Amino acid sequence: MSNQNTHVRTATYLADPADVHRVLLLYSGGLDTSVMLKWIQDEYDAEVVALTVNLGQPGEDYEVVKGKARQIGAVDAFVVDAREEFARDYVVPAIRANAIYGLGYPLFTALGRPLIAKLAVQYAREHGCDTIAHGCTGKGNDQVRIESTIATLAPELKVIAPVRSWKMGRDEELAYAREHGIPIKTLPAQGAESAPYSIDDNLWGRSSEGRWIEDLSVAPQDDVFQLVTRPELAPDEPQVIELDFEAGVPVALDGQRLELVELLERVAALGCRHGVGIVDHIEDRIVGLKVRDIYEVPAAAILLPAHAELERLVGTIHQNQFKSALDQKWAYLVYAGLWWEPLRGDLDAYMQAANATVTGRVGVKLFKGSARVVTRESPYAVYDAQLATFSESGGLFSQEASPGFIELWSLQSRMAWQVRNSR
Ligand code: ARG
After folding, report:
1. pLDDT, position 335
2. What are the chain's domains?
3. Does 8 have pLDDT greater than 90?
């Protein structure tokens, strides 16, 4: 087709159509990647191997997804359950780094992409593919995360991103699917909004974009919330849960030790029940645009503040002030698709060191949309109840020494004030 003539290779890692013979497709089972599965076979005369990665997307039936891939012509279709690796190697470092981008995005998508792309590289190599295909558009951060991962880990592999180049709108894609007998999960009812929300989710959160969300004057509409109970419908009774951390890693819920994935899922379920974790976020994307996302992040909205509170309790004032700057840098690198950047690893080493004493128990009160830390305890707390009360100082310092401290502490500021205000 026209592809050969119109193709412009704007990056070295993009595939020359003539060299595309066997493609590893990152396949979600949705409309875009289903159309891609067929389109790639026809457009490039290539074989397609489909890979679907389970990062804990709630309610997904992976057998159905795999069957669908085969039905549309994949020569092979794989589903990999990467939940444990995701939780251990991506979410835990994010917890240690108190990772939030902007005013409330806990980075679940940004954390998932490098792992998905890493698995794509692994499967592409194992199954003799020369090219990796993904379904990201040209407007988002996800293309950055996926392609920079592939270009970093596998310089020999090439990339195609059909959605970015084929210029089909949703209606054309639906027509293409119908024409080629591609099964479509849900067709909009007559008269309903023609496009669904654009969703991405995993065990650390869920995002919705598109439709009314793009209109900043519209308040969130109920039908967007598929995970978290709306706070006004949440139970009238608050619930206090207890979370145990060891070296910054959550290990138990209400005194019960749990595997990480199960703990994250259980905490998420509690958050959902109490309406916790709804975020309406305007975000500065890496690719210039600002975008509004509606996030449902029930687990992150509980675990991140619990961790941060414990960390502040065991850290000194100097550690605490220093770390927040590094936390921000960590979050930005991850948001920006630079998971494999050595600085991220350097920061991780620091995060791990700083978290060595983040061990203890935090009580969090869940009530109608809020998650508030109400109790904290740690054997490493830099805290002495006796020192904090107005009674005897316990021998570590003398209150009589305070005026001397104040005189020196304020010295430069006082001098500067005088210089500026006396004439
Ligand atoms: N704005 C968020 C981010 O850049 C969420 C992106 C969700 N991705 C998607 N394909 N729907 O990380």
Report:
1. 98
2. 17-195 (3.40.50.620), 200-315+357-377 (3.90.1260.10), 389-421 (no CATH)
3. no
